[in-house]
Amino acid sequence: DIQMTQSPSTLSASVGDRVIITCRASHNINNYLAWFQQKPGKPPRLLIYRASSLERGVPSRFSGSGSGTEFTLTIDRLQPDDFATYYCQQYNNDFPEFPFGPGTKVDAK
Amino acid sequence: QVQLVQSGAEVKKPGSSVKVSCEASGGAFNSNTFTWVRQAPGQGLEWMGRIIPLLKKSNYARKFQGRVTMTADKSTNTAYMELTDLKSEDTAVYYCARDVGLPYGLDVWGQGTTVSVSS
Hints:
- Chain A has 109 residues and is an all-beta fold.
- Chain A has no helices and ten strands.
- Chain A is globular, with a radius of gyration of 13 Å.
């Protein structure tokens, strides 16, 4: 089974901060890693795919990096609209399941 | 732009089944893979499985094997997820989402369907 972990589980930050969230996969997923943002009562929103490709319409303050088993989502100059929960997901077809990480909640300090 | 519209909220008894629909509009149905994700109250996202209509192929999370069936009807542009033998732990919001194949991710999501299981 492939497992996804994220850290931290909760992150307190202020508007204008740089925020970094880490996601780790238990196996090499060949960069098939996506990042999502979710706000309460709403479906997730795709931010990043293939580890570092910015989804159309997503602000450039969001960026993704990493390879193999370790990945990061960075939010530069955090905006009020960015307080939300962030999930990573692996989608490498070599594995039969495409699990999400447990999530990282970004809240106001 | 593709839109996914899901069926309405359901209230079910333990042991019964639920079938949630996800109608796609605005694009070629067979160019999509449909994934189902659920979220229990206050919890994270749980991948349930996916179906590739063009290949008539589906794969499910081991946790749901034997209880879940995902289908797709090209004539109505609708994907379905049926979950049987419902338990209280199946109370959740169920989402459908689509992707158009590698390297792209789940870029379009339905609004979610609340399924409540209670005696």
